[in-house]
Amino acid sequence: QVQLEESGGGLVQAGGSLKLSCVASGRVFHLHYMGWYRQAPGKEREWVARITRDGMTQYADSLSGRFTISKDSTPNTMTSYLQMNSLKLEDTAAYYCVAREFGGAPETWGQGTQVIVSS
């Protein structure tokens, strides 16, 4: 099992930046990838980005290069970062970290961190 703990959300003005963090602990040696989803009020959940254990990244096309996912590892943890730049009002959402182990196990979800972009 993997446990996830997110941080870094908050209130930011449009055009500003935020960096979200997600620390995975537990069976991190078996992680295939970590990633992020978001869900805005009244909207469907949206996939944002993911990064594999060996550093390959993928992004939602709608982000237009404004977000960057990265990771860092220690023997007992893996941390995923989501650097969000040029934030827009429509980026306001709850952001959820996910992690998936090799072998087809379902994704593990974090508790979410709120990002509010103000005008």
SSE topology sketch:
Layout: E1 2-7, E2 10-13, E3 18-26, E4 31-39, E5 45-52, E6 57-59, E7 67-73, E8 77-84, E9 93-101, E10 108-109, E11 113-118
Parallel strand pairs: 2-11
Antiparallel strand pairs: 1-3, 3-8, 4-5, 4-9, 5-6, 7-8, 9-10, 9-11
Q: What features would you describe in this structure?
A:
There is one protein chain. With 119 residues, the chain is mainly β. It contains no helices and eleven strands. The strands form two sheets. Strands 2, 4, 5, 6, 9, 10 and 11 form a seven-stranded mixed sheet that branches. The N and C termini lie far apart (40 Å).
Q: Which shape, going by the Cα principal axes?
A: elongated
Largest β-sheet summary: 7 strands, mixed
End-to-end Cα distance, whole Å, is: 40 Å
Mean pLDDT: 95
Q: What string gives the helices and strands in order?
A: EEEEEEEEEEE
- The unreliable regions are none
Report helical residue fraction: under 10%
Portion in beta strands: over 45%
Tell me the radius of gyration: 14 Å
**Classification by helices and strands:** mainly beta
**Total number of helical segments?**
0
**How many DSSP E strands?**
11
What brief labels describe this structure?
elongated; seven-stranded mixed sheet; mainly beta; 119 residues
